[in-house]
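Write out this protein's structure.
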Amino acid sequence: MAPYEKNMKPSAVLYKAVEYASSNEVKADILIADTSGRLHTNINLMNELVKSKEAITKKMPTAPHEVLLVLDGTTGLNMLNQAREFNRQLTLSGLILTKLDGTSRGGCVVSVVDELGLPIKFVGVGEAMEDLQPFNADVFIDSLFP
């Protein structure tokens, strides 16, 4: 585990995590930073998120290699505003669309992909690890128009 101190800022934790993951001791191939719970309407949380991305880049100039936004398939049209703001702040590389296991079909993501030109990389169709699946456009279209 990377060394950390109580009450460290998220950006400092991520800086140390990149440092630790890339150390000779560990040499990790992948480091995933989950910053869940961010609201695009909360400026303090968004500023903290931007600082976190900057901390990663400061430690490893080529990182982050992916910046994915997880969108809840039940959100509706608000997901476009959410994606716009996250993309403006972070320059997203793709999307993950979740909660497609119920009545939600996630059709509003089409407007996000159309406007922002971001690919959908994964879809979540349940809560188990294997329920996060690579995105398949044909399967997605068939689910929108059964």
